[in-house]
Amino acid sequence: QVQLVESGGGLVQPGGSLRLSCAASTSISINAMGWYRQAPGKQRELVAMISRSGSTDYVDSVNGRFTISRDNAKNTVYLQMNSLKPEDTAVYYCNAKFGLRSNAWGQGTQVTVSS
Q1: pLDDT tens track for 39-51
Q2: Helix (DSSP H) and strand (DSSP E) numbers for the chain
Q3: Distance (Å, rounded) from C-alpha 6 to C-alpha 105?
């Protein structure tokens, strides 16, 4: 029903920036879209979420450094990541919420912050 395709991960030095994109292929109306991440040996955590109307929510550790945005016409969500730190290293997963309680997930994109 909902397919998510992510792009934009990679290797960046501390202090650098990356922009992740996630496009949803669907005719279904999507509610919130967001990004989660999972570092080795850790649980997946919510990074940022944006509602259809544009309300946003961030995990405290990325507040002021990451910005989530979306283009409803393109069913696409973006995550601009600035001032990256080694602790931001993780696989980042796109998430889309639709219907009453349904979720779709992207395949994940690796973000590595290292000198």
Answers
A1: 999 999 999 999 9
A2: 0, 11
A3: 10
